[in-house]
């Protein structure tokens, strides 16, 4: 499992869920080749629905399927799953209280060569304002599988943000993901909260800080909503906080942490993420440099706060 | 019961509801009264006792602003009592302007953002097709609503999926909020368009309950293709005051208007023999 690409985890998990539950249906909007979902087509038969290039219909039809008792798993690129079809997701799925699972792929700079048009720095911000939904940004194959399985049994609207390619393995599969976070490194001087591809950068930054005699904890805060307030408040009582996300600093992980901190346990914070910029084409490592999404940026932010 | 009489009752209670509130979507509610009367009086396999029965027929009022007409119908069918009907848009109500599947008994899908109900109806029809059911999904759609691009996505999906148990009812009342549809964004010929999109489609007098009934029964016989019946209607249908009013989408009547509405209600009351 840990060697699988995230898109393979998606297909494999949905196949397993569909095998034991005849109510599972998979919808996509002409991205089977990108997502590698051909096995879903083969094995789910009529319960696999490729609607074509029409995301508004994808979300609306999913709502209708949910009304008749099916559990739709819907995927498309993250910008189409959120900003393109926001009103459909908000109303037909969220407001109408339908149980559905949306997987948005290629978040932030991981859209690479698709560039600014396909580069969602705002999907979490959009989804966070839909009442009572569940939002995850996944960082690891085991975690992705566990969250898909939970989304199947729970109720309500889920938005899961993930890369399609291979993720840095962080877990062994024995972890308990139910609290919405995992502590990956202990530390006493401060906290780095990160999600998705930024978890690896956070771990690198913590390692570099350790060499300077600074000990910070690193927490993979993969459940963006409902965020685990206790862990955030606990971290705030320990020392300064740096958040790291592959998303606009407005409305995503950093904002969510800052809201909890400001209302409960004020402490100095810095948010690493995209600031007042649109996307552009480029290779991942180059884009991480351009948008300040490197371990070094996290390192400097924490040093500033501790001065 | 006689279907025209049922239509008169729906029209009477739709008017009472909106008059009680003092304003609202009179025009587009009144134009679907006859089709609601035929659906709920003659065609649908639904009842308040089996409102969650998965084998029932489904209705999606995609032109959600016509909610008051649907509510009058559901009240008359016994889904809720008169007090509930007159709670339309009151603070804390379970009867909001636009239908809500969670709040109102008998409402199958939440609608109000135009175009979305059609997509949901395709999903419901697809779900029932997957389940091997023979029940029907009816989507009531506005002519102005068809400005929305999402509708045409949904129609493509419905035709491709061969949703022959989906019946789309287009309320062609020729007007949208800002005026005549032909002036705002000419829809051209709906029948031709729907046929080009892979539907069976034909036009019916949307004020004639017998013609509507024949059309709906014909639509149920169709196989392999979804059907779109274009209902030739009048915005404000059945109430001369509204039929003649040019701007009749959302009305906040003046004193003369209020008097005209009271008179129309009294005329309808006489027709259906109720004491006000």
TrEMBL record, chain A:
Query: Which residues belong to any copy of the Transketolase-like pyrimidine-binding domain?
Result: 4-170
Query: What keywords is this UniProt entry annotated with?
Result: Thiamine pyrophosphate
Protein's UniProt name:
Transketolase
The scientific name of the source species is Candidatus Enterococcus palustris
Cofactor(s) this protein requires = thiamine diphosphate
Identify the Pfam families for this entry: Transket_pyr (PF02779), Transketolase_C (PF02780)
Q: Which family does it belong to?
A: Belongs to the transketolase family.
InterPro entries, A to Z: PDH/Transketolase, THDP-binding, Transketo_C/PFOR_II, Transketolase-like_Pyr-bd, Transketolase_C
Automatic annotation (TrEMBL), chain B:
The organism's superkingdom is given as Bacteria
Which regions form coiled coils?
none
User: What positions does the domain Transketolase N-terminal occupy?
Assistant: 4-264
Q: Which Pfam families match?
A: Transketolase_N
Q: Where are the transmembrane segments?
A: 21-41
Q: Cite the InterPro entries for this sequence.
A: THDP-binding (IPR029061), Transketolase_N (IPR005474)
Q: What keywords is this UniProt entry annotated with?
A: Membrane, Thiamine pyrophosphate, Transmembrane, Transmembrane helix
CDD domains in UniProt = TPP_TK (cd02012)
The answer to whether the entry has keyword Transmembrane helix is yes
Gene3D superfamilies given for it?
3.40.50.970
As for family, the record states:
Belongs to the transketolase family.
Name of the protein this chain belongs to: Transketolase
Organism annotation: Candidatus Enterococcus palustris
């Amino acid at each position: 499992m840990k060697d699988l690409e995230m898109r393979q985890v998606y297909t494999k998990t949905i196949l397993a869920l569909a095998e034991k539950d005849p109510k599972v249906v998979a919808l996509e909007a002409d991205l089977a080749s990108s997502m590698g979902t051909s096995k879903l087509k083969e094995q789910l038969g009529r319960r696999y629905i490729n609607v074509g290039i029409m995301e508004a219909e994808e979300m609306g039809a999913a709502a209708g399927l949910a009304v008749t008792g099916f559990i739709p798993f819907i995927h498309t690129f993250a910008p189409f799953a959120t900003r393109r079809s926001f009103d459909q997701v908000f109303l037909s799925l969220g407001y109408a209280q339908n149980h559905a699972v949306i997987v948005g792929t290629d978040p932030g700079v991981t859209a690479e060569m698709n560039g600014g048009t396909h580069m969602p720095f705002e999907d979490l911000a959009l989804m966070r304002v839909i009442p009572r939904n569940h939002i995850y940004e996944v960082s690891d194959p085991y975690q992705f599988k566990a969250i898909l399985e939970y989304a199947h049994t729970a109720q309500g609207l889920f938005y899961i943000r993930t890369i399609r390619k291979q993720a840095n393995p962080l877990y062994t599969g024995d972890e308990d993901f139910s609290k919405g976070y995992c502590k990956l490194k202990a530390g006493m001087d401060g906290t780095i909260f990160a999600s998705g591809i930024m978890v690896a950068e956070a771990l690198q930054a913590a390692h570099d800080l350790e060499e300077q005699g600074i000990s910070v904890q690193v927490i993979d805060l993969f459940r963006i909503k409902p965020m685990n307030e206790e862990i955030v408040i606990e971290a705030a009582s320990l020392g300064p906080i740096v958040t790291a996300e592959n998303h606009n600093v407005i409305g995503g992980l950093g904002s969510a942490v800052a809201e909890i901190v400001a209302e409960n346990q004020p402490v100095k914070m810095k948010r690493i993420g995209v600031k007042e910029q649109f996307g552009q084409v480029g290779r991942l490592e180059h884009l991480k440099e351009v948008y300040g999404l490197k371990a070094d940026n996290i390192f400097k932010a924490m040093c500033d706060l501790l001065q | 019961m006689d279907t025209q009489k049922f239509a008169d009752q729906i029209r009477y209670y739709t008017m009472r509801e909106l008059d009680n509130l003092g304003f609202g979507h009179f025009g587009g509610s009144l134009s679907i009264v006859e089709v609601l009367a035929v659906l709920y009086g003659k065609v649908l396999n639904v009842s308040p006792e089996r409102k969650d029965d998965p084998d029932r027929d489904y209705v999606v009022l995609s032109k959600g602003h016509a909610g008051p007409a649907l509510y009058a119908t559901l009240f008359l069918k016994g889904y809720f009592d008169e007090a509930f009907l007159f709670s339309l848009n009151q603070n804390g109500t379970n009867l909001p302007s636009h239908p809500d599947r969670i709040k109102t008994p008998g409402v199958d899908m939440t609608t109000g953002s135009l175009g979305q109900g059609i997509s949901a109806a395709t999903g419901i029809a697809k779900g029932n097709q997957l389940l091997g059911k023979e029940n029907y999904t009816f989507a009531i759609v506005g002519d102005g609503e068809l400005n929305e691009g999402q509708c045409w996505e949904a129609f493509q999906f419905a035709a491709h999926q061969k949703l022959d148990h989906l019946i789309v009812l287009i309320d062609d009342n020729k007007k949208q909020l800002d005026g005549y549809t032909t002036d705002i964004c000419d829809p051209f010929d709906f029948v031709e368009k729907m046929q080009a999109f892979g539907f069976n489609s034909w036009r019916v007098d949307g004020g004639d309950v017998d013609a509507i009934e024949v059309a709906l029964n014909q639509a149920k016989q169709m196989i392999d293709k979804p059907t779109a019946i274009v209902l030739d209607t009048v915005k404000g249908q059945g109430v001369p005051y509204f039929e003649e009013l040019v701007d009749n989408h959302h009305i906040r009547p003046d004193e003369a208007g209020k008097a005209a509405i009271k008179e129309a209600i009294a005329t309808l009351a006489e027709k259906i023999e109720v004491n006000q």
